[in-house]
Model the fold of this input.
Amino acid sequence: MKSGNAGGAKAPCCNTNAQSGKSPGIGISLSTPLDSVRTLQSVLRAKAKSEAATRFYSLWDKVYRIDVLLEAYRRCRANRGAAGVDGTTFKDIEDQGLANWLQRLRQELRTGQYRCAPLLRVWIPKANGGQRPLGIPIIRDRVVQMAMLLVLGPIFDPDLFPWQYGFREGMDAKMALRRIHFGIAERGAREVVDADLSDYFNTIPHGHLLRCVARRISDGTVLAVLRQWLDAPVVERTAEGGEVRTTVARDTNRGTPQGGVISPLLANLYFRRFMLAWYQGGYARRLRAEVVNYADDFVILCRPGTGEQAMATMRRLMAKLGLTVNEQKTRLVKLPEERFDFLGYTVGHFYGHQGKPYWGTAPSKKSIKRLKERIHAETTSRWNNLPVSRRIEELNPVIRGWAGYFNQGPVQRVYRDIDNYAARRVRIWLRRRSGKRGTGYRQYSDQYLYEKLGLIRLVPPARDRSNAKA
Done:
């Protein structure tokens, strides 16, 4: 590898008038991909893929290249994350001057002065009614993590198993679901280990994880900065306005915080150890059982009669890796009598036209329930003072995004149910907003909701169906 200039890709200057895609200045559109970063990634990926045992000794200077930092900033900005403990937003950075901000950050990284800030702890609801902790880095740390991901991702991606689908370029959750469908419908899997790990991200052992990284990376600065992020303290704000600071990750030497940009890659790398044990240890061949993984979710597709042994083997291997199986959520599913949920879908035996059975997927009841709860929350009286157009602008992306993910298999009946629920909630909200009771069906027609207000409709109306006008 060439030091500081992989593949001959030149770092861009900071002339804000520059508009070339190959040598951009800070003033270019942040939506413009940087060819030099893609060239760097291609070189790193090709090297890693062609030489499975090679180690990379000089990477830190790639992380602080100005084109890499600019691309990292662009991607972080596109994700629109919340501010961290320092309260700094993307708008604040750009108001003060993005070019100078990036140059200062680059100088910190180049001279070894960079130190990460504490994480901001927030809680988000889980499907089971509990809460999931997120550790939000400040934007400065997020950009450096993204820059590290741009450099390390192409190196490690070829090492991951093809059945690890989470957070990888060119892969998504629905590809994992299609793999599961293939395993059931085409390869005859009739027993499925529906597995769950207890708090996977927060229990990954730091020592073993860093050894996974060091197998490919010999750059000491890269490893030291990764350690900084793993050991970062957490700040949680109390209802009284105070702050509580904890150092659980450093004290226990465990965990990679959900919310960190680099965490999905690290989680994939550690789960790869289980995949190696499963496949290279011969369990996949002996049990004829395939593992399909997405982040911390996975299932094991087994032939009839091998599910119990596969589940026992999985428990033993996870214990060796220092991970804990959630026994309350882990179960053996026997097809076709039972179904199971994976990544928001229900998978199993369904019945189509005239009762014809088929293997398929459908949005799970929990996923539908969560969407309806969100629609309900967006149409309560707390929003009565806002313009109607603003409410529709908030509601439409929620429904559109949900439907964009849940578009696999026969979904028209579910879509129609969502359409009816959303229309009903909007009508009720419009009535309450006017200080009146009732469902609003007579006052607000379909034509008024969909054509005048612009409410999204997932299923087109049947032809020649009329509705009273508002």
